[in-house]
């Protein structure tokens, strides 16, 4: 019975650990990131929040209605000294108490802005605010795409290096078997066998290091995708093909998302300056109120005239005009600060344009160099393989020492890794070139 229970537990454990490997193309990785990465989600939330910010600005142009209530108890009523002549008693002073111990008031008040330049400016800026967050969402998505694409290809390279090491280990094992057979038959020295065993041990160590690098790089990719770290992924071989890019077309910097975002920010700063300048303008508002008041020696709530409590209503409608005359140069200082902010963003625009042009030029140069390096390393790897095959045959026939064979293996491994690295350099430069054209979302169509 214990054995059955143990086997059942082991079976469930194996099932739990046997996770399905997810094949992941670049397009799938990007789409997953855009749906799940926190940065993309937060950018969408900012767009949603901008609508509420716009509604807040619009509310300032709408009537403001409030209800109010008040209950006051006056333990000691203030007396007022008046001339008795008004009451037919010249030459006397009368002390009169005005009011009642209990007063209760309830009413509704309304305020409507009729002219407020800052409100009008805020309404004009509302559309730009929405557009700013929409452009920011687009920029965030492009940043997510760039990070995912870069890490995607880096994972591929690490896995390719692992494949190279596995191939080297397999070939070296074959050589070890040959030397072992020769040693057993007295045709090889023990030092040759020891050297090949050391070589295998070193390859194993290197493989473990690369395996660790693969895991770390995959975890980074999953992080940038917003994917659970425990998910097992696989990248198809076809995802790392070299495709020629157009290098003659010069991108329009003014259409880049980074530049558009700064331009929209400049537009918002202009509105901000106008809103501050509105402090020089007068404001006009309409006010209205209707109230009901109860007064008497008892608490008015629920009381009637028979209790000595009397209720009456009153209302008022008015216009409030506010004309700023002198604010201690506060408004002028704020306007000048807004001017500085505008000049700063203009400098940022010039610097951003220069930076984007530089990125395109560097990507173009890197593409050209990488294509040359890829062709050179591809030929070099093929030549290193031929050298290794010939050296191995010569070693088996006793025409070459073991040192030459080990050197040939090292040269092939290095050439294959150099070729893979050249491919990575090309793909990373390709991403930067696509980015400089403002076409990162085209990766979703691959």
**Superfamily (CATH H level) name:** Outer membrane efflux proteins (OEP)
Q: What is the fold-level CATH name, i.e. the topology? A: Outer membrane efflux proteins (OEP)
Estimated helix fraction: 55-70%
Order of helices and strands: HEHHEEEEHHEHEEHH
For the biggest β-sheet, the strand order reads: 2-5-7-8
Count of distinct structural domains: 1
Beta-strand residue percentage: 5-15%
Main beta sheet: strand number and arrangement? 4 strands, antiparallel
Shape-level CATH architecture: Up-down Bundle
Structural class by SSE content? alpha+beta
What is the 3D form? elongated
Supply the CATH class: Mainly Alpha
Stretches where pLDDT is under 50 for at least 5 consecutive residues are 1-18
Report the end-to-end length measured between terminal Cα atoms.
56 Å
User: Total number of helical segments?
Assistant: 8
Subcellular location: Cell outer membrane
Pfam families: OEP
InterPro entries: OMP_efflux, TolC-like
Signal peptide: 1-18
């Amino acid at each position: 019975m214990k054995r059955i229970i143990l086997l059942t537990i082991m079976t469930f454990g194996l099932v739990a650990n046997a996770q399905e490997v997810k094949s992941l193309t670049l397009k799938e990785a990007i789409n997953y990131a855009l749906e799940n990465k926190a940065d993309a989600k937060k950018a969408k939330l900012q767009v949603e929040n901008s609508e509420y910010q716009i509604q807040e600005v619009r509310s300032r142009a709408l009537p403001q209605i409030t209800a109010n209530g008040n209950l006051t108890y006056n333990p000691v009523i203030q007396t007022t000294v008046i001339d008795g002549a008004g009451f037919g008693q010249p030459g006397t002073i009368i002390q009169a108490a005005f009011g009642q111990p209990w007063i209760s008031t309830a009413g509704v008040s309304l305020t409507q802005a009729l002219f407020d330049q800052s409100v009008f400016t805020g309404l004009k800026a509302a559309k730009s605010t929405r557009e700013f967050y929409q452009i920011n969402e687009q920029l965030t998505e492009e940043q997510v795409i760039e990070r995912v694409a870069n890490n995607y290809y880096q994972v591929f390279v690490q896995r390719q290096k692992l494949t190279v090491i596995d191939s080297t280990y397999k070939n070296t094992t074959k050589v070890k078997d040959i030397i072992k057979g020769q040693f057993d038959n007295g045709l090889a020295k023990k030092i040759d066998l020891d050297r090949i065993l050391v070589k295998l041990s070193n390859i194993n160590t290197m493989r473990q290091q690369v395996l660790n690098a693969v895991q770390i790089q995959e975890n980074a990719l999953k992080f940038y995708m917003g994917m659970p770290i425990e998910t097992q992924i696989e990248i198809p071989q076809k995802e790392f093909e070299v495709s020629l890019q157009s290098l003659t077309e010069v991108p329009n910097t003014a259409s880049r998302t980074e530049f558009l975002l700064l331009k929209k920010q400049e537009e918002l700063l202009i509105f901000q300056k106008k809103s501050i300048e509105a402090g020089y303008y007068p404001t006009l508002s309409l006010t209205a109120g209707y109230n009901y008041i109860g007064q008497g020696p008892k608490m008015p709530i629920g009381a009637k005239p028979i209790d000595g409590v009397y209720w009456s209503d009153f209302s008022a409608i008015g216009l409030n005009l506010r004309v700023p005359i002198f604010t201690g140069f506060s408004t002028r200082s704020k306007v000048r600060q807004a001017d500085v902010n505008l000049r700063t963003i203009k400098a940022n625009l010039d610097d951003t344009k220069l930076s984007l042009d530089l990125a395109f030029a560097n990507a173009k140069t890197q593409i050209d160099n990488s294509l040359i390096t890829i062709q050179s390393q591809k030929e070099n790897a093929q030549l290193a393989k031929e050298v290794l095959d010939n050296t191995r045959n010569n070693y088996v026939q006793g025409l070459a020492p073991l040192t030459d064979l080990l050197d040939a293996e090292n040269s092939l491994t290095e050439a294959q890794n150099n070729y893979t690295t050249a491919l990575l350099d090309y793909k990373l430069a390709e991403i930067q070139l696509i980015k400089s054209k403002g076409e990162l979302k085209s990766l979703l169509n691959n």
